[in-house]
UniProtKB/TrEMBL annotation:
PANTHER family: OS07G0462200 PROTEIN-RELATED
Transmembrane parts of this sequence: 9-28, 59-80, 92-113, 133-156
Organism for this UniProt entry: Ananas comosus (Pineapple)
Parts forming coiled coils: none
Membrane topology note: Multi-pass membrane protein
Record bears the keyword Signal: yes
Organismal lineage: Eukaryota, Viridiplantae, Streptophyta, Embryophyta, Tracheophyta
Keyword Kinase assigned: no
Name listed for the protein in its UniProt record: Fiber protein Fb34
Annotated keywords: Membrane, Signal, Transmembrane, Transmembrane helix
Principal localisation: membrane
Protein location: Endomembrane system
Alphabetized Pfam families for the sequence: DUF1218 (PF06749)
GO annotation, cellular component aspect: endomembrane system
Family: Belongs to the DESIGUAL family.
Length: 180
């Protein structure tokens, strides 16, 4: 890595992983399970849900987001791997936690609707489904997390390179003359 510049590979990987998570979250929103009322041979009425693809997309989005965040934290030796850079780094963690919560909650709720049948005994029948916008909220916070992570990494490399230059400069200016 060149002093003063962050690794282009780290930038590209963080952005690519985050955009992939964003794409998966959008796909999950578009493929949310929907239910329809079905009556079986025994005259029992229940909700039948279509495919469970959105759950896989939601989990995939979470895993890509987690990989992006983990990569950045390992490279910068932040949180579990060393001393954090400076105050304010928690903003990226906050957006990460919100995005992760939306993606995991959406995937869990979507999976619940597709895995279990509920017999309906009421007169007004409706089949519950995942509320619109859960995966979209996750996708929006994935983008916020990506932006904050890119800026965090830029400022991290700038701060560490300035510290390295100050250390080098201080060492090179030491005189070799004796005291009078």
């Amino acid at each position: 890595m060149v002093e003063g510049k962050g690794s282009t590979l780290v930038h590209v990987l963080v952005i690519a992983l985050s955009l992939t998570a964003f794409g998966f979250a959008i796909a999950a929103e578009r493929r949310r399970s929907t239910g329809s009322i079905v009556t079986d041979n025994f005259n029992a009425t229940y909700c039948a849900y279509d495919s469970d693809v959105a759950t896989g997309y939601g989990v995939g989005a979470f895993l890509f987001l987690l990989t992006s965040q983990s990569l950045l934290m390992i490279v910068t030796k932040c949180m579990c791997f060393g001393k954090p850079l400076a105050p304010g780094g928690s903003r990226a963690w906050l957006t990460f936690l919100i995005a992760a919560a939306c993606l995991i909650a959406g995937a869990t709720k979507n999976a619940y609707h597709t895995k279990y049948r509920h017999v309906i005994y009421a007169q007004n029948w409706t089949c519950e489904s995942l509320r619109k916008g859960v995966f979209i909220a996750g996708a929006v916070f994935v983008v916020f997390t990506m932006i904050l992570n890119v800026y965090y990494y830029m400022y991290f490399t700038k701060a560490t390179s300035q510290a390295a230059r100050k250390t080098t400069k201080a060492n090179s200016n030491v005189g070799m003359t004796g005291y009078p």
